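Q: t-SNARE coiled-coil homology domain-containing protein, please. Structure only.
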Amino acid sequence: MPNSELANMLCSIIREELKPINERFTALDEGLQSINDRLSNLEEGLQTTNDQLDNLDQGQLDLKQGQISLEKGQRRLQKDVTLIRKELKESWKDVGNFDDRITTLEKMVIR
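A: Structure for t-SNARE coiled-coil homology domain-containing protein:
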């Protein structure tokens, strides 16, 4: 047998022996692609979750600021209510004084 025929025959045998190995590599590549696709989906889901958490954090900050504003308003309102009560008490005191004066004047007029 000439060398070229022998080389061709060895190449054919090697190719045949390598076919199952190439098929395994192809299957591994397909499996890796599937894993990469699933990993990409997980990363997208994680990013979506992180975005939602960021939105929740911002909403929580907004709510906290709103609560602080409401508490400030409540304190101002409480001060106003206290002032109104004080002024109302003084007004009733004045009404009582006027009533006393009128009663005194009525007694003076009747005598």
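A: Brief note, in case it's useful. The radius of gyration is 47 Å.
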